[in-house]
Amino acid sequence: MTEERKEELRQLLNEAIASLEIRHSWAQETPLLPLAVYRNHLQQGWNYRGPSVINFTPYIVREATKLKFLDFIREELSEYIHENHIQSACSFVAIGGRVPGYDLYDLLVQLLRITIARGIESAVLAFDRCTTETHGSFQYYAVLEGIKLECEIQVYEGIRLVPLPEKESDLPRHLLNHIFSMWNAKADDFAGKTLFKIDATVSPIFCKPFLKSEVSFSEYLSRFQVKVDNNTFSRFDVDDFYGKFCRALSLVCDSAVQIARQWPFLEADKLFNLGVFGVTRVRYPSHSPFGIPNPLSTLQIDEAKRLYEILVNLDSGVEEKLQIPINRWIKSKRSRDPEDKMIDLGIAFESLFLPSDNVDQLAFQFRLRASWLLGEDKAEREKLMDEFKAIYTLRSKAVHNGVVPKKIKVRKDEKPIATSEFIPRAQDLCRQSILKILEDGKFPDWNNLILGEEST
């Protein structure tokens, strides 16, 4: 904006504040809220990076002032306006916002909130940036289970893992505010967990809205682009990143690393924040996973990054085929019941080693292929054959009988061992198999397989 237009905006803001009432958003019989009280609520919420929990809205009483203000907005942002509506990137960040856009009065109200909480100059600066800048900042947050941090670790520039305090009372204020705004959430769902924080930008900030009849929801979403604040990702898909990186972390840490909840966070004092935030996606039931979370070190992060790069660059067919065994292995690490563990491991092993179009001699093919993949020589492969036979036996008992025996005999010349002691070995063999295929970047050619060597 020119200096003259900035001065005009200052005058409009002064006129608006002089003609302002703070009314309840929908309960009109509610008494007006004093401006000083409203300002305090906004500042308390915004300063602690949390939402304002009050349901009051600034309202310009003088109609002439309101209309003049709206005309000013139309003139400055004309390229983004269609039939008195403007589309904001906040809808894309929240995923599920208003496809037809927001009424211009929503933008005016947000500008008034910034004026009340931050002052006129901050509001002028925020509006001026929206007329010149092409992107706005926000964060992705996710709560991880299955790992334990002693201190904050930077994964990539703009992407960090942050340990959350063990005591609920020590949780960050903005996180507590968010918890209170969520459905069926408790502070102990977050205490002691790990927070995955991603600093990102979205562009453009505003665009001309679509009519619902003119565009599909996917086409609407494609108008916005997200970038992480580093040079690693040119285009960023948060769900794809979370999925692949958590699989890599799980394999490195030998633990079920999963996202319990995830949500976008857009600072409340951003002018383009016209929507409702704090919408949380619950990724799995909130019961605690089995076992103690494994500690995570910087060296393990480096290894997880290496595995993540492998997962990203896998051939699409190999990646698709590996998703089932990885996910089932993770599920087996998370399960409490031995039967569930073995069923998931059975599915993982079958996905890794058994053909989908040939059901003859499956148990033998499974033992043969798995032993060949992991064994270094004939003697080691013969020992592995015994272990994989025991795995297949336990899997069959779990599937057909709904229960696994307390003990399992792995080798003829050895005493039976407790099934609870053998299952971790089975999980480790599954993990080794997955890692071997990942390192090779492909599945072996099973047609050329014999126990002692690969035929030529």
Report what the structure shows.
The model has no long low-confidence stretch (mean pLDDT 85). The termini are far apart. It is built from 15 helices and 17 strands. The longest helix is centred in the last third of the chain and has 24 residues, at 378-401. Strands 6, 8, 9, 10, 12, 13 and 14 form a 7-stranded antiparallel sheet that branches. Helix 11 packs antiparallel against helix 12 (338-353). The protein has helices at residues 3-18, 35-47, 63-76, 89-94, 104-118, 120-132, 173-181, 217-221, 238-253, 298-313, 316-334, 338-353, 362-374, 378-401, 419-440, and strands spanning 20-24, 56-60, 81-82, 85-88, 102-103, 136-145, 147-148, 153-156, 159-163, 194-203, 206-207, 225-228, 258-265, 281-282, 294-295, 407-408, 417-418. The protein is elongated and about 95 Å long. The protein is of the alpha+beta class and 456 residues long.
Portion in beta strands: 15-25%
Unreliable residue runs:
none
Q: What is the number of beta strands?
A: 17
State the end-to-end CA separation: 73 Å
Radius of gyration: 28 Å
- Share of residues in helices: 40-55%
Principal-axis shape equals elongated
* Secondary-structure content class: alpha+beta
Mean pLDDT: 85
Number of helical regions = 15
Q: Characterize the largest beta sheet: strand count, sense, and whether it forms a barrel.
A: 7 strands, antiparallel
